[in-house]
Specification:
Arc Repressor Mutant, subunit A, 2 strands, single chain
Length: 124
């Protein structure tokens, strides 16, 4: 049985006013979205590189799927890094604590900057 090739410009529908290509969904990201996603991913990696050890960073990336992949279950991560599940949890907890401290430091800096600008406004 031989199939007939169709053009994407083939007219379909009851009144044949719609081209086949118009019915196909474009699932690709816009270049701007791809660029933004790449920049955000790189910024997250830079922040984690500054705060975490390489092992902590790799475990966080694996557990939470930050490598533009699906999150990996604890047992898979533990076997991947040849660590016990308990040790992976400990490293995860330590990494999360470091990130909380970073968040608090950032919030404190923002408060100080706001206070300084408010004080400058009052003085001037």
């Amino acid at each position: 049985m031989r199939r007939r090739a169709l053009s994407l410009n083939y007219l379909v529908g009851e009144e044949e006013k719609t081209e086949l290509v118009d019915l196909l969904e474009d699932t690709s990201q816009l270049p701007e979205e791809q660029t933004a996603e790449t920049l955000i991913h790189q910024e997250v990696r830079n922040i984690l590189d500054e705060v975490l050890t390489s092992r902590e960073r790799d475990i966080v990336f694996s557990l939470y799927g930050l490598s533009q992949t699906e999150p990996s279950p604890l047992d898979k991560v533990s076997s991947l890094y040849n660590l016990s599940q308990d040790r992976v949890r400990q490293l995860q907890t330590k990494a999360i604590q470091k990130l909380h401290v970073l968040k608090l430091q950032s919030a404190f800096r923002a408060c100080l900057e706001d206070s300084e600008s408010a004080l400058a406004t009052v003085i001037n």
